[in-house]
Amino acid sequence: MTAPFGGAGRPAPGLPSLPTPPSGWPVGSYATYEEAQRAVDHLADSDFPVRDVTIVGVDLMLVERVIGRLTWGRVLLSGALSGAWFGLFVGLLLAFFNPAGSAFGPILVGVVSGVVFGLVFAAVGYGASRGRRDFTSASQIVAGRYDVLCQPRNAEKARELLAKLAMGTSGSGTSPA
């Protein structure tokens, strides 16, 4: 749960300021996060006080999916492109504060400088790895199952509502606790 403008220094009202284990009674257990989200959405649609509900991922795993192979060409192209974007940003700032009024020169200098620095930093970083990690990947934390917990004062009502949801959509893989 996040709050607008709420950072680490300002937690959302009612939430603990330090990491704490979740509390409440299990009212449902689901194989996917999407199913757990749908269950909580069903509770919200039924005018249930969802402030008492928590979704807890159990049996966490770090999953790293390999996207592709890294080559010198891909590394240098990626470095050049990211450098060009940063250089364009710097060039636009320089052009904005340029008293002469010409925007083309500062933007061109920014983009060219960005490409050069992007190429150099990408080549140095990739060369330092000496081929130990010649692939790109995306990491994600996933859970083996997702439990929906509810504070004891409303847990029985939540179980009843989730049982109605499971009966109404048979075959969805949901199971009330």
Automatic annotation (TrEMBL):
Stretches the record annotates as Disordered: 1-21
Alphabetical list of Pfam families matching this protein: YflT (PF11181)
Annotated organism of origin: Pseudonocardia thermophila
Protein name as catalogued: General stress protein 17M-like domain-containing protein
Keywords from the UniProt entry: Membrane, Transmembrane, Transmembrane helix
General stress protein 17M-like domain residues: 27-106
Record field: transmembrane: 75-97, 103-126
Family annotation (InterPro entries): GSP17M-like_dom
Residue spans of biased composition, Low complexity class: 1-12
Keyword Iron on entry: no
